[in-house]
Structure formats: structure tokens, C-alpha cells
Write a structure and sequence with these properties.
The protein has 364 residues and is of the alpha+beta class. Helix content is 23%, strand content 33%. The chain has eight helices and 20 strands. It has helices spanning 43-51, 93-103, 108-121, 137-149, 167-184, 195-201, 219-224, 229-234; strands at 4-12, 18-27, 32-36, 58-63, 66-67, 78-81, 155-159, 187-192, 204-209, 212-217, 241-249, 253-256, 262-266, 278-283, 288-290, 299-308, 313-319, 322-328, 339-344, 350-352. The strands form four sheets. A six-stranded mixed beta sheet has the order 6-7-8-3-9-10, sandwiched between helices. The chain has a five-stranded antiparallel beta sheet with strand order 13-12-11-14-20. It has a five-stranded antiparallel beta sheet with strand order 15-19-16-17-18, with no helix packed on it. The model has no long low-confidence stretch (mean pLDDT 94).
């Protein structure tokens, strides 16, 4: 096994289009790192550069102690799992698992031993004689994982491997991949556009936008302290509420809007230089709650849509022209078209510069 190191990696296509701009980060030996971002952000391009399927325009890529910029894919000691299963339909599961090893000249005994080992790890033993057409989507994805697993590579690269599965299967396969990583301790780089997958699988997450890295950190650090508005609104479902207004302090901190309405934010200390500034205020849906005490800092909002999802309810609110989403306990359910009193949890507010989108830090 080995780690990865990317130093100012760039991918520039003909015509000057920059697909990846100065990607610099490392993946520790045995780490599961997730690349996440919207479609077209460059995450799959970056993974293909690591695999050797895309050329590197500039920068340095190391796998272990070896620079591999110009090393062919088959000599990088990596294994890749794609969104499509790409199984050979005329071959059995066992034949699919062992085919790559046969091409590399492994002995029949070695191929059989590795296939048995991978099948046991992925609970594919009873399915070894079946053809792909007789497998479910989740079983096919496990075969695709097993085909990479038998290689015993230094690094696993997974490019949106769960995108073709339904929601229930995606959840079970997430657990499967996390279990497999814990069991093997292998270095994995996982690409997804699904922020739930990123948050639940990644030990660390690299957030990309337009080919540029926005932030790298653990899932909860990204959620609790996003470095900019893009990261703040991309991670989290429902997305963070963002309100633009002017910070004031009278009987407590408040946000005043252009229409003169005000949202109280409680007795929160912020730097004096922020007062009077136009800011973007971020509030996670779970940090908007029904006010229990009329005397606590709160504001009135109209209930527009109620979305019960079982253990919680998403309530779409209107405060003047501003739309908000709150994540509430399921009982009692708010009534559509009623007015409710809402309090913002001041300990968990996020402040951003409306011009740059960067997080405002409470520093001198």
C-alpha cells in the first residue's frame, strides 16, 4: 500500500481550458479521501490523472515514493472502479474476477486463490458461477469492486461507483465500501457528486468547483466551519439558508434587511468592525427552531410547505420576500399558511463577505 501526493497538478485542454488548477494535497497511506463537487468541477478528470488515463499538463504526482507523471496506467499499481460495472456478460462472476489477473500472467492457482479471497470478502461465494445478467445491481457492483480487489493494488480509485443504484442499494453499498476499507486498510480515492456519500464515507473531503480546490478537511469540520459560501451551501441537505442584510446591535445583535424588517440574533458577540456591514448570514435548517418562549429573540414567519420525512420535518417558511427552510421535530406538525415564531440558534451562525463569498473570521 502507498499514499498519494499531488503538487500543483494542472490539466489544460487545447484552447486554454483549465480543467484542474494547481491541485495540491496528499492522501495518507490507508486513508479514504473523497473528491466531491458539482458536475463539471473536474473531480473525475483529477481521478483519471491519478490513474494515468489523462495526461498531466504541469505539476508532480507521486504514488508512494515514485513520481508517476509519465508512467503508463498498468504500471502505476492502481485499480479503478467506474460508474458502469463493465462486466463481461458471457463470463461467470469467477471469470470476471480473475480475467485481469490472467491477462497479467498469474498462475491458475494464484488466480483461483485470489478470486476465492475476494469472493469471501465481498460475500460473493454463492454467486461465482452466475453470469452478470443473473445478478442484482448491488451484486454487480460488488463484482466490479472484487475485480479491483483481486489485483491487491497500492491505491483504489472509485469514480461514482454507486450512481446507477437506487437509493436503498446506494445506502447498503456505502456501508459495504466503508466496511471494505476498514477491513483492508487500503488507500482509496472516491469521486462523487453526492454530498451525502462524501460526508458518510470520507475520512477527509476535497471540495472542488470549476477545477479549483475550495477546501480540504474532515466531514464535520467542513460542515461546521465552511471556508466560503460555496462549501457552506453545497454540503448539507437541505442546504444552508443564506440571508443578506446589515448587522446591527441595539438590544442584541440583529440583521436588518433593505425592506426594514429585522431578524434578531440574540446576545452574540461579533467584532465591532462588522457592525453596519452588509453581510451574508448562513443558518443551517436545524438551527432554525420554533421559539418556546415569546421573550426569546425570535421572528414571525409564514409556513408555506411542510415536508414530513418520518423522524423529522422540513418546513419551508417565508419572512417577507425571503424563503427559509427549517428542520424540526415531527410533532406537532406546523399548519400550512399559519404563522410561527422562529428563533435562530446564535451559537451556530455563519458570516460571509457578500462580495468574495469568503468566511468572516472573528480575528483582530
Amino acid at each position: 500500500m502507498a499514499g498519494l501526493e499531488l503538487e500543483r497538478l494542472r490539466k489544460i485542454y487545447p484552447g486554454g481550458q483549465v480543467a484542474i488548477a494547481d491541485a495540491t494535497f496528499s492522501v495518507a497511506d490507508g486513508e479514504l479521501l473523497v473528491l466531491v463537487g458539482p458536475s463539471g468541477c473536474g473531480k473525475s478528470t483529477l481521478l483519471r490523472m491519478i490513474a494515468g488515463l489523462e495526461s498531466i499538463s504541469a505539476g508532480t504526482l507521486r504514488i508512494g515514493d515514485r513520481i508517476v507523471n509519465d508512467v503508463p496506467p498498468r504500471d502505476r499499481d492502481i485499480a479503478m472502479v467506474f460508474q458502469s460495472y463493465a462486466l463481461y456478460p458471457h463470463m461467470s462472476v469467477a471469470e470476471n474476477l480473475g480475467f485481469g489477473l490472467k491477462l497479467r500472467g498469474h498462475s491458475r492457482a494464484d488466480v483461483a486463490a485470489r478470486v476465492r479471497e475476494a469472493a469471501a470478502t465481498l460475500e460473493l461465494g454463492p454467486l461465482l458461477e452466475r453470469k452478470p445478467a443473473a445478478l442484482s445491481g448491488g451484486q454487480r457492483q460488488r463484482v466490479a469492486l472484487g475485480r479491483a480487489l483481486v489485483r491487491k493494488p497500492q491505491v483504489f480509485l472509485l469514480d461514482e461507483p454507486l450512481s446507477n443504484l437506487d437509493a436503498k442499494l446506494r445506502m447498503s453499498m456505502r456501508v459495504e465500501i466503508a466496511r471494505l476499507h476498514r477491513q483492508l486498510g487500503t488507500t482509496m480515492v472516491y469521486v462523487t457528486h453526492d454530498q451525502i456519500e462524501a460526508m458518510t464515507l470520507g475520512q477527509r473531503i476535497v471540495v472542488l468547483k470549476d477545477g479549483e480546490i475550495q477546501q480540504i478537511d474532515t466531514p464535520m469540520a467542513l460542515y461546521e466551519k465552511p471556508t466560503n459560501l460555496f462549501v457552506a451551501t453545497f454540503l448539507g441537505s437541505p442546504a444552508m439558508n443564506v440571508l443578506r442584510g446589515r448587522l446591527v446591535r441595539d438590544d442584541g445583535l440583529g440583521l436588518v434587511f433593505d425592506d426594514g424588517q429585522r431578524i434578531p440574533l440574540g446576545q452574540l458577540d461579533v467584532p465591532d468592525r462588522w457592525l453596519g456591514m452588509q453581510i451574508d448570514l448562513g443558518i443551517r435548517p436545524e438551527d432554525l427552531q420554533l421559539a418556546g418562549d415569546p421573550s426569546e429573540p425570535s421572528f414571525m414567519a409564514e409556513v408555506e410547505v411542510v415536508e414530513p420525512v418520518g423522524n423529522e420535518v422540513f418546513v419551508n417558511l417565508r419572512h417577507g420576500p425571503r424563503l427559509l427552510v427549517a428542520r424540526l421535530a415531527p410533532r406537532p406538525l406546523p399548519v400550512v399558511a399559519s404563522s410561527v415564531r422562529i428563533a435562530a440558534q446564535s451559537r451556530h451562525l455563519h458570516f460571509f463577505d457578500p462580495e468574495t463569498g469568503r468566511r468572516l473570521e472573528d480575528t483582530a
